[in-house]
C-alpha cells in the first residue's frame, strides 16, 4: 500500500518531530563518515523551507538505556549545522522540562536535535509512555530513519500511535528502490554477507535460501560458520550460541541446492591494530589460539571473484574484514571492486549497511553500484520479504 509522505502534509508553522538515523561511525569522538547525516538533509531542508519547527530524534550506537558520553549526539549536531549552514540547537536531554522549553522556543524554520534516544530504557522496548511524551512535543511525526526500520522502537514505531507518521524522502527512496529489486530479482542472484552483527544477520540467511542462488560469507560472520564445520578459529570473533544455527543453515542450503561459499584463507593477527605482524593462513589448517581472523585472504578473494561471475543481482551487506585498519582492508576493497565491475556488466547491485556504505565511499566506488542503502539490517530484512515495523507504522494513503 502506498505510504503518506512529507509532501502530503501541510508543514507551515507545524511542530514536526522527525526520526532520522544518525547512527554514524565515530572514532575518538569524531564522525568518520557522515553519509547518513547527508542522506537526511533533503527531508530536513524541505521541512525547514516549508516553515516547520523541526525536532530531530536519533539513536547512536547501543548505550543500553543510559547516558554514556561516547554515544552523545553533540558532535552530530555540529556536523549537521555545517551541512545545513544554519544553527542546530542541541539539548543534552532526551525528554523532560528542558526539552519542552527548547521546543516552545523554536521558531518557524529552526531545528533542534535532542540527545540519543537510546539513553532511555523505554526506547528499544517500544515503551508507549515514552513514545507519548515525544508525540506530545509535536503535531506530526516524519519517519526518515530507514536504517532503523527493522526495529520496533518508541521513537519510530510507538510514537505513530499518538500522532500521524509520514515518510521522509530518504525512506521513500529506499522503499522504492528496494521494492523494485525484490519484486523480481534477475538470476543468478548472489548475496555477500560479512560484518560484525552476526546474531542480527545470520537469521536472514534462512529466508535468503528461498531466493538467492549463492551466498558468499566473509567478515566476522565466517567464523561462526567455520566453527560449525569444526575448524579451529583461534580468538576470532564468533557467536557461540549461533553455531548450531550455522550448521542447520549449511545443511538446509545443500538440500535446497543453494551454494554457501566460505573463505578458504584468512588474514590473521594477534592484535586489532595497524602495523602488527600478520599472516595468511589456510582455513583448513586452522587458526592458533591468540590469533584472530581480521580479513579474508587472497585465495578467498579469487574464489569470490569466480563465484560472482555472471551474477545479475548482487546484494552486499557487511565488510569482509576490519577495513577501518588498512592492513585488513584488502578483502573489502577487492569485493567492492568486483561489485562495481559486475554493475558495469549490467547487474543490479545493492550495498547495505552503515559500515559497508562507508567502505564503498572510502574506496570511491559509490557511484559505480546501483544503490547504496543507508540500512544494513533494514535492507536485508526488506530483501527477505519481511514487513518492517518502522515502515508498517507509517500512515497509508487514503484511496
Ligand atoms: N573478522 C572480523 N572480526 C571483527 N570485526 C569484523 C571482522 N570483519 C568485519 N568486522 C567489522 O564489522 C563491522 C561492520 O559490521 P556491521 O555493522 O554488521 O556492518 P554494516 O554496518 O555494514 O551493516 C566493521 O566495523 C568491521 O570492522
Ligand atoms: O546501523 C544500523 O544498522 P546496520 O549496522 O545494520 O546498518 C542502524 O542504525 C540500526 O542500529 P542497531 O543495529 O543498533 O539497531
TrEMBL record:
The keyword Cytoplasm applies. GO terms for molecular function: ADP binding; ATP binding; phosphoglycerate kinase activity. Substrate binds at residues 21-23, 36, 59-62, 118, 151. ATP binds at residues 201, 293, 324, 353-356. Its EC number is 2.7.2.3. InterPro entries: Phosphoglycerate_kinase, Phosphoglycerate_kinase_CS, Phosphoglycerate_kinase_N, Phosphoglycerate_kinase_sf. Pathway: Carbohydrate degradation; glycolysis; pyruvate from D-glyceraldehyde 3-phosphate: step 2/5. Keywords: ATP-binding, Cytoplasm, Glycolysis, Kinase, Nucleotide-binding, Transferase. Pfam families: PGK (PF00162). Monomer. This is Phosphoglycerate kinase. It comes from Marinitoga hydrogenitolerans (strain DSM 16785 / JCM 12826 / AT1271). The gene is pgk.
Amino acid at each position: 500500500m502506498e505510504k503518506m509522505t512529507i509532501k502530503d502534509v501541510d508543514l507551515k508553522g507545524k511542530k514536526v518531530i522527525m526520526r532520522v538515523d544518525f547512527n554514524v561511525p565515530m572514532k575518538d569522538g569524531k564522525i568518520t563518515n557522515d553519509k547518513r547525516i547527508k542522506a537526511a538533509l533533503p527531508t530536513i531542508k524541505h521541512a525547514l523551507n516549508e516553515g516547520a519547527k523541526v525536532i530531530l530524534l536519533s539513536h547512536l550506537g547501543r548505550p543500553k538505556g543510559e547516558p554514556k558520553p561516547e554515544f552523545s549526539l553533540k558532535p552530530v549536531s555540529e556536523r549537521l549545522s555545517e551541512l545545513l549552514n544554519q544553527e542546530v540547537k542541541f539539548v543534552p536531554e532526551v525528554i523532560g522540562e528542558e526539552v519542552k522549553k527548547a521546543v516552545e522556543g523554536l521558531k518557524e524554520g529552526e531545528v533542534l536535535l535532542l540527545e540519543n534516544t537510546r539513553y532511555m530504557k523505554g526506547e528499544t522496548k517500544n515503551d508507549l509512555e515514552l513514545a507519548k511524551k515525544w508525540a506530545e512535543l509535536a503535531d506530526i511525526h516524519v519517519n526518515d530513519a530507514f536504517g532503523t526500520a527493522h526495529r520496533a522502537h518508541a521513537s519510530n514505531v510507538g510514537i505513530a500511535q499518538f500522532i500521524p507518521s509520514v515518510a521522509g524522502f530518504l525512506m521513500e527512496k529506499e522503499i522504492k528502490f528496494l521494492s523494485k529489486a525484490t519484486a523480481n530479482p534477475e538470476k543468478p542472484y548472489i548475496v555477500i554477507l560479512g560484518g560484525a552483527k552476526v546474531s542480527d544477520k545470520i537469521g536472514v540467511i534462512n529466508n535468503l535460501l528461498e531466493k538467492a542462488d549463492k551466498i558468499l560469507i566473509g567478515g566476522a560472520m565466517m567464523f561462526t560458520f567455520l566453527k560449525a564445520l569444526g575448524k579451529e578459529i583461534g580468538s576470532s570473533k564468533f557467536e557461540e550460541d549461533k553455531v548450531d544455527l550455522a550448521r542447520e543453515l549449511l545443511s538446509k542450503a545443500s538440500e535446497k541446492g543453494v551454494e554457501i561459499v566460505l573463505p578458504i584463507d584468512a588474514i590473521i593477527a594477534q592484535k586489532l591494530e595497524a602495523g602488527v605482524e600478520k599472516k595468511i593462513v589456510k582455513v583448513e589448517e586452522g587458526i592458533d589460539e591468540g590469533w584472530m581472523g581480521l580479513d579474508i585472504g587472497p585465495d578467498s578473494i579469487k574464489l569470490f571473484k569466480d563465484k560472482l561471475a555472471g551474477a545479475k543481482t548482487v546484494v552486499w551487506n557487511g565488510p569482509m574484514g576490519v577495513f577501518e585498519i588498512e592492513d585488513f582492508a584488502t578483502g573489502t576493497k577487492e569485493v567492492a571492486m568486483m561489485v562495481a565491475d559486475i554493475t558495469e556488466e549490467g547487474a543490479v547491485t545493492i550495498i547495505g549497511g552503515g559500515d559497508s556504505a562507508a567502505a564503498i565511499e572510502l574506496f570511491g566506488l559509490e557511484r559505480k553500484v546501483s544503490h547504496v542503502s543507508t540500512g544494513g539490517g533494514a535492507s536485508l530484512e526488506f530483501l527477505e520479504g519481511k514487513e518492517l515495523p518502522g515502515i508498517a507504522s507509517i500512515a497509508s494513503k487514503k484511496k
